[in-house]
Amino acid sequence: MPFCFTARHIKRPVMRDVRLPKKFMRITISLILILAFSSANSQSPEHGTVIKSKNASWKVWDINTMKWGDIESFWSRYADSKGGLTWKRSNTYPKYDNVKEFDTLLIELKQGTCLMEFFHSRWRRANDVRRWDDAFNEYGGCPYVFD
Q1: Is residue 60 part of a domain?
Q2: What is the tally of structural domains in the chain?
Q3: pLDDT band at residue 109, thresholds of 50, 70 and 90?
Q4: Residues 22-43: pLDDT tens digits?
Q5: Domain enclosing residue 132, as ranges
Q6: Is 1 helix (H, G, I), strand (E, B) or coil?
Q7: Of 37, 105, 110, 121, which has the highest C-beta tally within 10 A?
Q8: How many CB atoms lie within 10 A of CB 55?
Q9: Within 13 Å and on the Cβ side, how many CA atoms surround 144?
Q10: Is residue 73 included in any domain, yes or no?
Q11: Which pTM was predicted?
Q12: Cα dihedral angle (90, 137, 54, 42), rounded to 10 degrees?
């Protein structure tokens, strides 16, 4: 009789019952969930995010210090990172011919101060150049710099 090959002649590997203990599975799943939720909640705010308060002590998040601080200190650190204020603090703008691209000035108005940056041939609020938080444009003298 000729040999007939059938599926019953194929040796199948012996599958052992490999079960992980329930306690191990619970711990593993718990760790995965804890790590997933803790990393989602531990994200710091975006650089330049402002928290406004009624008593005028607004706070801004600075990613460089990983702390909340006042707006003028934030501006100071930003200017320092670029070599300092180019035109210091003043209540008047410098002559147009003396100004270069990205020069900075802390303009002082009767309503307060505002950090200005020379960008694309004119003075702009630093926030309009850097796009931190729209609330910067409501702080101190910033709403009045173009009046």
Answers
A1: yes
A2: 1
A3: very high
A4: 776 677 776 676 666 555 445 7
A5: 50-144
A6: coil
A7: 105
A8: 5
A9: 11
A10: yes
A11: 0.68
A12: -110
SS (H, E, C) 12-74: CCCCCCCCCCHHHHHHHHHHHHHHHHHHHHCCCCCCCCEECCCCCCCEEEECCCCEEECHHHH
Contacts of 61 (CB under 8 A, 6+ apart): 44, 45, 46, 47, 48, 49, 50, 67, 68
Instruction: Please choose, from the candidates 132, 97, 100, the residue with its C-alpha nearest in 3D space to the C-alpha of residue 115.
Output: 132
Rounded-to-integer distance, Cα 112 and Cα 89, Å: 12
User: Is residue 124 in a domain?
Assistant: yes
State percent of the chain over pLDDT 70.
Answer: 76
At residue 108, does pLDDT exceed 90? yes
In one-letter notation, the amino acid at residue 45 is P
**For residues 94 and 11, is the Cβ–Cβ distance under 8 A?**
no
In 3D space, the residue among 113, 3, 96 whose CA is nearest the CA of residue 58 turns out to be 113
Token pair recorded at residue 79: 């200017």
Q: Please check whether residue 73 is in contact with residue 59, taking contact to mean a CB–CB distance below 8 angstroms.
A: no
With a pLDDT cut of 90, the percent of the chain lying above it is 54
Q: Is the pLDDT of residue 44 over 80?
A: no
d(CA 89, CA 73): 14
